[in-house]
Known about the structure:
Helices cover 27% and strands 13% of the residues. The protein has helices at 2-6, 17-28, 82-89, 93-99, 136-143, 147-154, and strands at 55-58, 64-68, 71-75, 113-115, 127-129, 167-169. The strands form 2 sheets. The chain has a 4-stranded antiparallel beta sheet.
Amino acid sequence: IKIIEDENLHQYDLISPKDLAAEKKDKNNHSNPEPNKPASMPTLPKAETYMQHIQSRTAPNGRPIYINNDVEYVVADAGENLYTIAQQFGIYAYQLFKYNDVSQKDNIKIGDIVYLQPKKKKSTKATYQVAAGETLRDVSQKTGVKIKSLCKYNLIDSKASLSEGTTLFLQKQNN
């Protein structure tokens, strides 16, 4: 924590993956005429559409790998699908379909979270407040908790529609 504070590294927690990649490219091109002057912080997307990504490591191909609930994931780029992402990381596409609760006919969009490992059965956080229009899969992707576990903790069906403001449990409740 001291290193993070001393080096002011927390600023990178607020940068979107695309802006971070652009900043890295700028550094590689030496386009910053003052090397000791930090690059300006990019404008962040609206709070309701922005998810804070915490980078855990960088893949050999230079792609950032993020972590959520101790599960690694990447953010989908333009023109990607689960097959191309699986190929990049040397894993089978069927694993990505399973980890991300999608079928082969489903498409991913730019900015979608794609887990590279199985999600966890529970979260370190106790609850999650549902936003407008969110599905159980959306909550699962945002929290890194398996849909099956969310259904069990909240006594709901996997096809249940969620209402804005509903509080979902992300771990077993002690009654």
